[in-house]
Amino acid sequence: MTHPSTVLLARYADGGPGLDDAALWSIEAHLDGCADCREQLAAHVTPATTDLLDRVAVSLDAALEASPSPARQRTRAGAAHRRWFAWTLLPWLAVTVAVLGCGVLLDAAEPSMPSLVLLLAPVAPLPGVAVAWSRRIDPAWELIATTPAAGLAMVLRRTLAVLVVVLPALLAAGASTGTSLALTLLPSLAFTAATLVLGALIGVRRAAISLAVTWSAAALLPSVAVRSLSPVLQPGSTAVWAVTTTVLAAITPFAASRFRRLTSGN
């Protein structure tokens, strides 16, 4: 267990000057389970703060004695499940799977057209990723965002939950239409990683929308208009997608500090 230094505890006791949100959350989470650090923290508390805490403790004791027994709390497993998966994702994931199903039907009905499954594959995970960490969609966003568990790790967990649903749907759609599985999966992973990297700068939701619009304008709509698959989805582009996915995935951890801010992921 790594304990906060004496300097950090002194700053925390003084109101947290010079400490960012992540450091404050980390110290608070540690103090919850470390009696030794709480004892050290008490040594840095001013007499005025001690007097205030004593008065608050007396008031709380009186209020607790007069209040009814608390309701049963949710288990940690339930709370962890809620952090991994937001139920607001379900409608968006259902729509994504339905759109892929329509792509399969259209590929069968119009074999002369470029594969819609391939054209939709890069942006298929983006609606779910955008909603997975959005203060506009998730009603518990502010509550979760202020916990020590928030940040890039939270975004990655929820993104993985989206991919667990979308990637099998893409595999099934690609197998049913006879398209290249590598060109079905690699572009979707590349765009997912790009959403996280760009999302560290402008927010995950805005990044997903920007990339989806860019792909539609640069590849999807022109391919449908000329009835020819975009060059970036030809068999020879597999290696490029693989390298792009690897590079973007390697860059993502360096953006971790930006996801600790309450303004990220909007």
In short:
By secondary structure, the chain is an all-alpha fold. It contains 13 helices and no strands.
Topology:
Layout: H1 6-13, H2 21-33, H3 35-43, H4 47-66, H5 76-84, H6 89-109, H7 116-120, H8 126-132, H9 141-145, H10 152-177, H11 181-202, H12 204-226, H13 238-251
Helix pairs in contact: 1-3, 6-8, 6-10, 8-12, 10-11, 11-12, 11-13
Give an overview in words.
The structure is a single chain. The protein has 266 residues and is mainly α. Helices cover 68% and strands 0% of the residues. It contains 13 helices and no strands. α1 packs across α3 (35-43), α8 (126-132) runs antiparallel to α12 (204-226) and α11 (181-202) packs parallel to α13. The longest helix has 26 residues, at 152-177. The relative contact order is 0.11. The model is unreliable at 75-82 (pLDDT under 50).
Got a strand count? 0
Number of continuous helical runs: 13
* Average pLDDT, all residues: 79
The main sheet comes to: none
- How far from one another are the termini? 33 Å
Q: How would you spell out the order of helices and strands?
A: HHHHHHHHHHHHH
